[in-house]
C-alpha cells in the first residue's frame, strides 16, 4: 500500500483537496512571478490600459545608468554586511550564555525574543524617539560616557548605522531561539569524550560546539541575508516615509516602492525586483558553496 | 569559588543584555505616561510624577484607531483561518494522497519560496485593480490565503503521524475527509497552533502591502494607521508612544500565552532544511 500508483480517480481527488490553495497561489504567487519577469522587459507600457507595445532590456539599461539605483544597491549591501554578521555572532554568544542559565531561563528567553513579535512600524516609532538628537535616550547615554551627540536620523553619515543598530536589536531574538535549539540537540557524549581526551573548555567550544552548531549558523546566515536584502518597513517608519536623509537609507525595495507607487514606472520597478532576486540568489549560492566545505552535517 | 564567580558573572551579563533588549519597551511605556514637558526633560525621567493615563484615551481618539483596530482584527482572523483551511487540505494531499505531478508540483512550490515577495507586489496590484478590489478587504486578505510555508510545515507534521492509523481508519470505513478532520488535525494540534500563531503575528504586523493597497482612511490597518498618525501627532511623543503601545500590546499578550508553541513552531519550521 505504501507505493501505490496514482490513478485517475486518486489524482482527481487529490486535486480537489489542492484546489483552493492552487487557485490562490496560481493567481497571486505563480503568475505574478512570471508576470514580473515579463514586465521587467516592457519598454512601452501603459499601466492604465495594461497594454504593452514593445519589449527589450531598456529598463535594465535605465537601472544601470541610474545613480539612485546604484545608491540603493550600495546601501542594501552595506546594510546586509552590517546586520548579518553582527546578528549571527551576537546571537550565538547570547544563546551560549542562555544555555548555561537555569534559574529564570524562561524569563530571559521571553525578554530576548520580545522584539520579534512586535510590530516593526510601532517599534520603529520608538526608535525614532530614542534617536532624537536633543531629547533622545541614545545621545543621553552617549553623553554619560563622554561621547558627542549625533544627529542619528538627519545626518546622512549616521542614519544607515541607526537603521542597522535597530535591525540587529529586532532580529537577535529569532536567531537566539534557533541557536538554543541547535545547542540543545548536541549529543552530550561528544563533550564527555572531549573532556576524557583532556580538552579544555575553549578547545571543546572550538572543536565540538562550533562544528556541531554549523548547520544552524548556516541557516541563520541565509535567513538573515534574505531578510535583510528586503528591508523596507523599518526605513519607512524610522524616517517617517522618507528613505533617510539625502537618500542615505534608500534600499532596493525602497527604490522599487518609489518607482512603483510614487512614480508609476511599473516596468522599472519590476526590473529592480528582478535584480533583487538575482542578487539574493547569487549571495545564497555563495553561502551554499561555502557551506559545502565548512558545514558539518 | 571560581565556579561561583563565573555563575554570578553569567547572570550579570545576561541581565545587562536583557535590560538592553527591554529599554525601548520601557522607554515607550514611560514616555506614554508623561506630560508633554516631562518628555523633553534632561536627564530623562523614567517614572513620571503623575501617571498620565489619559494620554491613551487622547491618542486613541486623535485618529480613527478603533476603526484601524477592527480592520486589523478582521484581516488577521480571516487571513489566518483561510490560510489554515487551504493549507490543511493541500498538506493532506501532499502527505497522504497519490496523484500525478505530485513531485513536480511540490518542487514548483518549493521554488516559489525562493522568490522575494516584494517582486509579486506589482503584478498583484495590477490584478487586484482589474477586479476592482483595491481599497477593499479583499485586497488585504485574498493574496495571503495560500502560504506554501504553512503547507510545508503542516505536511511535515502530517507525515510524522503513523501511516497505520490512516489505513486502520479507512478499514473502518472512514472517508479521507473524516480522517483528516477527526484524526489527523487533532493529532497535529501543536504544529497547527504554531503555524497559526506565526500567521497571526505576520498578518497583524504586516505593513508594506496594506500601505500599498489601501487609499482611504477607513481601510487602514493598525500599522498603516499608526504610521499616518505620526504626521498628525508631530512632536507629541507621549501620544505617539501611547499609540505604539496599544499596537504592540495584543501580540505581546498572544506571545506570552503561546510562547512555547511559537518557539516550537520556529524551530520546526526553521530547522526543516
Largest interface: A-B, 96 and 95 residues
Integer-rounded radius of gyration of chain A: 24 Å
Give the domain tally of chain A. 2
Instruction: State the secondary-structure class of chain A.
Output: mainly alpha
- DSSP strand count of chain B: 0
Q: What is the radius of gyration of chain B?
A: 24 Å
Oligomer: heterodimer
- Mean of residue pLDDT values of chain A: 88
The SSE order of chain A reads: HEEHHHHHHHHHHH
Spans of chain A with pLDDT under 50 lasting ≥5 residues?
none
Task: Count the DSSP helices of chain B.
Answer: 14
| Overall outline of chain A | globular
| Helix amount of chain B | over 70%
Question: How would you describe this protein?
Answer:
Chain A is built from twelve helices and two strands. The longest helix of chain A is centred in the first third of the chain and has 34 residues, at about 65-100. Chain A folds into two domains: about 10-60, no CATH class; about 60-295, MetI-like (MetI-like fold), CATH 1.10.3720.10. Chain A has a two-stranded antiparallel sheet. Helix content of chain A is about 75%, strand content about 5%. Chain B has one domain (about 60-270): Orthogonal Bundle (MetI-like fold). Chain B contains 14 helices and no strands. Chain B has helices at about 1-30, 35-40, 55-60, 65-95, 100-110, 120-130, 135-140, 150-160, 165-170, 175-185, 190-205, 210-215, 220-235, 235-270. Chain B starts with a helix and ends with a helix. The relative contact order of chain B is 0.14. The model of chain B has no long low-confidence stretch (mean pLDDT about 90). The interface between A and B is large, with 96 and 95 residues.
Topology record:
The complex is a heterodimer of chains A (297) and B (273).
Chain A (H helix, E strand, L loop, with lengths): L7 H32 L2 E5 L4 E5 L2 H8 L1 H34 L4 H13 L2 H11 L6 H8 L14 H27 L2 H9 L4 H29 L3 H6 L13 H11 L3 H29 L3
Antiparallel strand pairs in A: 1-2
Helix pairs in contact in A: 2-12, 3-7, 3-9, 3-11, 4-7, 7-9, 9-12, 11-12
Chain B lengths: L1 H31 L3 H4 L14 H9 L2 H32 L5 H11 L8 H10 L6 H5 L6 H12 L3 H9 L4 H12 L1 H17 L2 H6 L8 H12 L3 H34 L3
Helix pairs in contact in B: 1-14, 3-14, 4-8, 4-11, 4-13, 11-14, 13-14
Amino acid at each position: 500500500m505504501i507505493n501505490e500508483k496514482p490513478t485517475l480517480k486518486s489524482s482527481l481527488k487529490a486535486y480537489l483537496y489542492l484546489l483552493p490553495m492552487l487557485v490562490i497561489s496560481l493567481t497571486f504567487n505563480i503568475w505574478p512571478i512570471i508576470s514580473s519577469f515579463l514586465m521587467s522587459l516592457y519598454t512601452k507600457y501603459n499601466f492604465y490600459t495594461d497594454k504593452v507595445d514593445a519589449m527589450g532590456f531598456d529598463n535594465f539599461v535605465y537601472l544601470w545608468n541610474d545613480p539612485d539605483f546604484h545608491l540603493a544597491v550600495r546601501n542594501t549591501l552595506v546594510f546586509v554586511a552590517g546586520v548579518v554578521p553582527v546578528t549571527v555572532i551576537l546571537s550565538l554568544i547570547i544563546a551560549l550564555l542562555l544555555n548555561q542559565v537555569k534559574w529564570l531561563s524562561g524569563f530571559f528567553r521571553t525578554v530576548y525574543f520580545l522584539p520579534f513579535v512586535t510590530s516593526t512600524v510601532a517599534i520603529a516609532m520608538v526608535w525614532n524617539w530614542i534617536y532624537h538628537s536633543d531629547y533622545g535616550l541614545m545621545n543621553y547615554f552617549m553623553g554619560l560616557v563622554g561621547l558627542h551627540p549625533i544627529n542619528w536620523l538627519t545626518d546622512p553619515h549616521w542614519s544607515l548605522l541607526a537603521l542597522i543598530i535597530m535591525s540587529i536589536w529586532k532580529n537577535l531574538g529569532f536567531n537566539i531561539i534557533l541557536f538554543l535549539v541547535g545547542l540543545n540537540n548536541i549529543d552530550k557524549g561528544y563533550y564527555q569524550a572531549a573532556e576524557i581526551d583532556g580538552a579544555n573548555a575553549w578547545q571543546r567550544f572550538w572543536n565540538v560546539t562550533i562544528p556541531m552548531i554549523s548547520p544552524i549558523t548556516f541557516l541563520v546566515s541565509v535567513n538573515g541575508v534574505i531578510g535583510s536584502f528586503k528591508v523596507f518597513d523599518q526605513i519607512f517608519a524610522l524616517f517617517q516615509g522618507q528613505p533617510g536623509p539625502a537618500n542615505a537609507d534608500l534600499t532596493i525595495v525602497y527604490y522599487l516602492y518609489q518607482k512603483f507607487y510614487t512614480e508609476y514606472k511599473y516596468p522599472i520597478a519590476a526590473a529592480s525586483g528582478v535584480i533583487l532576486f538575482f542578487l539574493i540568489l547569487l549571495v545564497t549560492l555563495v553561502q551554499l558553496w561555502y557551506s559545502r566545505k565548512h558545514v558539518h552535517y | 569559588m571560581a565556579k561561583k564567580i563565573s555563575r554570578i558573572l553569567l547572570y550579570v551579563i545576561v541581565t545587562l543584555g536583557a535590560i538592553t533588549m527591554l529599554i525601548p519597551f520601557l522607554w515607550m511605556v514611560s514616555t506614554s505616561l508623561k506630560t508633554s514637558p516631562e518628555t523633553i526633560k534632561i536627564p530623562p525621567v523614567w517614572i513620571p510624577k503623575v501617571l498620565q493615563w489619559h494620554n491613551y484615551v487622547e491618542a486613541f481618539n486623535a485618529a480613527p484607531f478603533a476603526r484601524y483596530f477592527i480592520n486589523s482584527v478582521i484581516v488577521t482572523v480571516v487571513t489566518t483561518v483561510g490560510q489554515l483551511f487551504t493549507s490543511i487540505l493541500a498538506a493532506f494531499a501532499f502527505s497522504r494522497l497519490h496523484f500525478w505531478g505530485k513531485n513536480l508540483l511540490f518542487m514548483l512550490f518549493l521554488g516559489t519560496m525562493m522568490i522575494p515577495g516584494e517582486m509579486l507586489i506589482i503584478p498583484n496590484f495590477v490584478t487586484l485593480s482589474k477586479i476592482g478590489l483595491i481599497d477593499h478587504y479583499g485586497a488585504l486578505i485574498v493574496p495571503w490565503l495560500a502560504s506554501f510555508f504553512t503547507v510545508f510545515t503542516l505536511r511535515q507534521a502530517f507525515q510524522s503521524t503513523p501511516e497505520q492509523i490512516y489505513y486502520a481508519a479507512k478499514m473502518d470505513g472512514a472517508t479521507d475527509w473524516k480522517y483528516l478532520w477527526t484524526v489527523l488535525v487533532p493529532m497535529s494540534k501543536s504544529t497547527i497552533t504554531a503555524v497559526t500563531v506565526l500567521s497571526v503575528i505576520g498578518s497583524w504586523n504586516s505593513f508594506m502591502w496594506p500601505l500599498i493597497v489601501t487609499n482611504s482612511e477607513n481601510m487602514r490597518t493598525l500599522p498603516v494607521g499608526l504610521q499616518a498618525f505620526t504626521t498628525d501627532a508631530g512632536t507629541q511623543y507621549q501620544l505617539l508612544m501611547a499609540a505604539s503601545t496599544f499596537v504592540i500590546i495584543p501580540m505581546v499578550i498572544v506571545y506570552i500565552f503561546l510562547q512555547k508553541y511559537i518557539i516550537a513552531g520556529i524551530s520546526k519550521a526553521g530547522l526543516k532544511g
